[in-house]
Each structure stands twice: as C-alpha cells, then as structure tokens.
C-alpha cells in the first residue's frame, strides 16, 4: 500500500521564527572525522535524519564508540589505524554522501568491507569517485567496473594524486581529500566551479593542515587527527523550503535563526534577492569555522531570472524548490548547467517537471535544467515523491498556493533530511493565522 498524505490549506500565511535541523553535509562529516581522529569528539546540533543515522551505524560497525542522544553525539575512537573489520555489510541506505565519502575513507584504511545501499543509491554513479581513488592505488571492485553499489573495498596503502575534477561535486572532492589524508605524499584537487567546502573547513578543526587557494585544494598525506568539539548549524538546504514559502505566499515573513551561511551554500539567497524577494541577513557569526546567522525572508513581487554557471553547485539541492518559486515569478526562469540533477536521489529534472506540470505549471525540461514560465495559478493534484525527500517537501510547499489539496505519495522519505518538517510547517501556518 502506498502511503499518501493530503495537504490542504485555506488562504495560508507563513509567519514566525524557526530553527531548522542541523546541516546534513556537516553532520556526516562530523561523524566521519570524529571516527577517523583518535580520542573524544562531541557533536552538537547533529541532524537526526535517516542519512546521517546510516553514517553513525557504519562507523559503529568499524569499532568506533558512538553515543547519539537526539542532536548530541559523543564519539570515542581509537583512530582510523585501529578500526576493526566489520561483520557483514556497511549499509549506506539512501545516502550518496555516506557512500561516496566512505569510499575515499575506507580505501586508505586497514579494513576490508562491502558497501551497499537502497535501490535508489544502487543506481547512482560511483565511477566519478572510484576512478580517481583507483589511480591513488585503491582496491575497489563491483558491478559495471565499480560504477554501482554494492562495492567491495580492500584497505590499501595509497599515494597522493593531482586531480582535475570532471564534475562539480563536493562528494567527489571530499572522497579524494579523505583518501589523501591517509596517502603518501601530496594530494591536489582542482575544481572548475567551487563546491561546498565543509570537508576542508572541518579538516582544519580536527588539526589537519590543508590549503585552499581559489579553486585548488591541497594536503599532505599521513596527518594524524585529534578529536574535537563540533557545532553544526541549521541546514540552509532545509531552510530553503520555508524561505521559498515566505517569498511566494502573500503576506508572509519568516525568520531563520542559527542557519548555515557558508558562502559555498548560499546561492539560494542570491537567487531570492535577484527574483525580488526581500531577504535580510540580520546576524552573522562563526566566520572561522562554519559561518551561520539569522536571515529574514518576506514576500514581494517576483520576477523570472536566469540561473547558470558557477552558482549552480552553491544551490544544487535547492533547484527543485526554486523551480516551484519560479512558477510564481513573472516572466521566464531559465536553469542551465545543472545536469547533475539527473543523478540525484532521482532524476530531479524529469521529476520536478512532471510533478509541477501536474499542478498546472508551465515547465519544460532541458538536458541540463528547466525553462519555467510564470506566473501560473496552480491547482491541487496527486504528486509522487519518488522516495526523494526534496521532491516530497517541494510538493508540501506547493500546497500553500494550490487551489485544492495536494496529495503526496510516500511522504515519509522527508525524514531523510528533515524529520520535523511537517511540525515546523504547521507552526508557521498557525503563527500566520494568529497574527
Ligand atoms: C553533498 C554534496 C552534493 C549534494 C548532496 C550533499 C555533500 O552532492 O547534492 O546533497 O555533502 O558533499 P554532489 O557533491 O554530488 O553534487
């Protein structure tokens, strides 16, 4: 039986202040680095989403002691050199970040393991990671020359690499940097467009010496990390859903406290401003580690824009919800250079186009993006989530502006990155009714 959630509102307004759950990318990395380092690491603000819980389970199987209590995590590790060979497979669930970063980590460890994932993850390309890792000396084998999970990884002694990235992907960059940490010699990664730099920032927090010079990142192998205390800010990719709601629903204003403001992730703010929404950054802290602060977003008249080039990696996960926003903007919005959307949890170009068009939007899919005509009034319909958390949340936010209910098939996938999404949505609507 397919689970279906029906969402209907009567002229809603979203208002209030929220703190969205911890950043998914940073939560994964905190568990990974706390497990690689020796000694004690604490994590506060951890995202209790399913993807990050898979990462915890995997490191426990490698012999690391991890106690998770809500958003607090305590890690005590002997260090990567003393991990134990796991009993059974390491299951990454739906999480591309877990799988790809682990390939880099496990390749240079001293354990042998088999990495598996759910149906969606088993269809996502891994060669982008296994090819550079194999040229560092990694021993990885599996179906289709190692392009798909399950993959078997035999820990080896690796050598550094000078690598020019072929795709704009922080997962690929991070996998190589993690492998480089345990390799002999220098590892250099050159990007053509800068992707999220959480790995680089957190390596420094754990005491590693890593250089960032424009698009080039380099580090010497053989560095030993020490446990530390990590504070995870709110996930701007989760906040993006309510930022769009505030921008698009008449009379709305939402304030986001403690939300991540790392410049490699804030493309959504630039897009909202360029489209004409009112966005104010009220407070900004943490410039040395992970920047975070308070932002306020309010509704106003929106216009279509072009989104392409170097900004794409800084908002790649926000493009489904940006597409919804564009249906309410006057004129044409063009999204280009975003072919990576085709290999996310689902083909997000096809899925977003199909689902929003069911609501009456005018969207045309292109090879590397979408062309969206607006503004179009939207009507309710039954939408598929494709088991993709961001598609599920896009459908729920669409219900704020549709005439008639939106039914979402398989909404539970939203817990992958935003377990309390529906509670926060209700809170903002209630605040809107109260005012
Ligand atoms: C992530 C990188 C991005 C993003 C994903 C998380 C990360 O993927 O889409 O949700 O934590 O490094 P790519 O690096 O494949 O673009």
From TrEMBL:
<dbReference type="InterPro" id="IPR023193">
    <property type="entry name" value="EPSP_synthase_CS"/>
</dbReference>
<dbReference type="InterPro" id="IPR036968">
    <property type="entry name" value="Enolpyruvate_Tfrase_sf"/>
</dbReference>
<dbReference type="GO" id="GO:0003866">
    <property type="term" value="F:3-phosphoshikimate 1-carboxyvinyltransferase activity"/>
</dbReference>
<feature type="domain" description="Enolpyruvate transferase">
    <location>
        <begin position="14"/>
        <end position="425"/>
    </location>
</feature>
<feature type="binding site">
    <location>
        <position position="390"/>
    </location>
    <ligand>
        <name>phosphoenolpyruvate</name>
    </ligand>
</feature>
<feature type="binding site">
    <location>
        <position position="96"/>
    </location>
    <ligand>
        <name>phosphoenolpyruvate</name>
    </ligand>
</feature>
<feature type="binding site">
    <location>
        <position position="25"/>
    </location>
    <ligand>
        <name>3-phosphoshikimate</name>
    </ligand>
</feature>
<comment type="function">
    <text>Catalyzes the transfer of the enolpyruvyl moiety of phosphoenolpyruvate (PEP) to the 5-hydroxyl of shikimate-3-phosphate (S3P) to produce enolpyruvyl shikimate-3-phosphate and inorganic phosphate.</text>
</comment>
<feature type="binding site">
    <location>
        <position position="24"/>
    </location>
    <ligand>
        <name>phosphoenolpyruvate</name>
    </ligand>
</feature>
<comment type="subunit">
    <text>Monomer.</text>
</comment>
<feature type="binding site">
    <location>
        <position position="171"/>
    </location>
    <ligand>
        <name>3-phosphoshikimate</name>
    </ligand>
</feature>
<keyword id="KW-0808">Transferase</keyword>
<feature type="binding site">
    <location>
        <position position="124"/>
    </location>
    <ligand>
        <name>phosphoenolpyruvate</name>
    </ligand>
</feature>
<feature type="binding site">
    <location>
        <position position="169"/>
    </location>
    <ligand>
        <name>3-phosphoshikimate</name>
    </ligand>
</feature>
<feature type="binding site">
    <location>
        <position position="171"/>
    </location>
    <ligand>
        <name>phosphoenolpyruvate</name>
    </ligand>
</feature>
<feature type="binding site">
    <location>
        <position position="348"/>
    </location>
    <ligand>
        <name>phosphoenolpyruvate</name>
    </ligand>
</feature>
<feature type="binding site">
    <location>
        <position position="317"/>
    </location>
    <ligand>
        <name>3-phosphoshikimate</name>
    </ligand>
</feature>
<feature type="binding site">
    <location>
        <position position="344"/>
    </location>
    <ligand>
        <name>3-phosphoshikimate</name>
    </ligand>
</feature>
<protein>
    <recommendedName>
        <fullName>3-phosphoshikimate 1-carboxyvinyltransferase</fullName>
        <ecNumber>2.5.1.19</ecNumber>
    </recommendedName>
</protein>
<comment type="pathway">
    <text>Metabolic intermediate biosynthesis; chorismate biosynthesis; chorismate from D-erythrose 4-phosphate and phosphoenolpyruvate: step 6/7.</text>
</comment>
<feature type="active site" description="Proton acceptor">
    <location>
        <position position="317"/>
    </location>
</feature>
<dbReference type="InterPro" id="IPR006264">
    <property type="entry name" value="EPSP_synthase"/>
</dbReference>
<keyword id="KW-0028">Amino-acid biosynthesis</keyword>
<keyword id="KW-0057">Aromatic amino acid biosynthesis</keyword>
<dbReference type="InterPro" id="IPR001986">
    <property type="entry name" value="Enolpyruvate_Tfrase_dom"/>
</dbReference>
<keyword id="KW-0963">Cytoplasm</keyword>
<feature type="binding site">
    <location>
        <position position="29"/>
    </location>
    <ligand>
        <name>3-phosphoshikimate</name>
    </ligand>
</feature>
<comment type="similarity">
    <text>Belongs to the EPSP synthase family.</text>
</comment>
<feature type="binding site">
    <location>
        <position position="24"/>
    </location>
    <ligand>
        <name>3-phosphoshikimate</name>
    </ligand>
</feature>
<dbReference type="Pfam" id="PF00275">
    <property type="entry name" value="EPSP_synthase"/>
</dbReference>
<dbReference type="InterPro" id="IPR013792">
    <property type="entry name" value="RNA3'P_cycl/enolpyr_Trfase_a/b"/>
</dbReference>
